[in-house]
């Protein structure tokens, strides 16, 4: 069983970028905690500041899961700023037969006006917003519960 975790732009800076908003935990710490909590799950992690990479990974995961016997439980996606701007990323999520759980560390409804709308929410299987970096584990829990 596997779950792909994808982070978008600037999330490679977790732990140092705006800690008052995003906290002080690094992605390495978050991933270690998740792997310890679910040692029988194979987690793949990808991060890019480039929109096309995120789209490629979603499409490749979808294709791989359709063509193999691997049990793909889903994708945890924190698309960062692309959540608010990328129609192309929205289309990739909408097309995915693998469930995608959208994650936002901060509560986007309480942020700047341009961050309050996510183009991904209505095409994602589920959204976890404003739960801090614990949102990643909550997304995994949701996928493992088979809510999709």
Which terms summarize this structure?
globular, 5-stranded parallel β-sheet, alpha/beta, 35% helix, Rossmann fold, 148 residues, 5 helices
| Low-confidence segments | none
Helical amount: 25-40%
Biggest sheet: strands side by side, in what order? Answer: 2-1-3-4-5
CATH hierarchy: architecture: 3-Layer(aba) Sandwich
Q: Strand-and-helix sequence, N→C?
A: EHHEHEHEEH
Q: Roughly how many Å apart are the termini?
A: 15 Å
- Look at the helices and sheets and give the structural class: alpha/beta
Number of strands: 5
Radius of gyration: 14 Å
**Beta-strand content bin:** 15-25%
Whole-number average pLDDT?
93
CATH-derived topology: Rossmann fold
- Main β-sheet, in a few words? 5 strands, parallel
> What is the CATH level 1 assignment?
Alpha Beta
Q: Find the CATH superfamily.
A: Dehydroquinase, class II
Give a quick precis of the structure.
The protein has helices spanning 19-22, 27-37, 51-67, 87-95, 134-144; strands at residues 2-7, 42-47, 72-78, 100-104, 126-129. With 148 residues, it is α/β, with parallel strands linked by helices.
Topology overview:
Elements: E1 2-7, H1 19-22, H2 27-37, E2 42-47, H3 51-67, E3 72-78, H4 87-95, E4 100-104, E5 126-129, H5 134-144
Parallel strand pairs: 1-2, 1-3, 3-4, 4-5
Helix pairs in contact: 3-4
């Amino acid at each position: 069983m596997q779950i792909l975790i994808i982070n978008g732009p600037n999330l490679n800076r977790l732990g140092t970028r705006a800690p008052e908003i995003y906290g002080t935990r690094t992605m390495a710490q978050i991933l270690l905690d998740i792997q310890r909590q679910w040692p029988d799950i194979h987690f793949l992690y990808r991060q890019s500041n480039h929109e096309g990479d995120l789209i490629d990974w979603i499409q490749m995961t979808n294709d791989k899961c359709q063509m193999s016997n691997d049990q793909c439980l889903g994708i945890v996606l924190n698309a960062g700023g692309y959540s608010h701007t990328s129609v192309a990323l929205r289309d990739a999520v909408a097309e995915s037969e693998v469930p995608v759980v959208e994650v936002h560390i901060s509560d986007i409804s309480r942020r700047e006006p341009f961050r309050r709308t996510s183009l991904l929410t209505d095409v994602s299987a589920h959204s976890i917003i404003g739960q801090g970096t614990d949102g990643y584990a909550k997304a995994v829990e949701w996928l493992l519960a088979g809510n999709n």
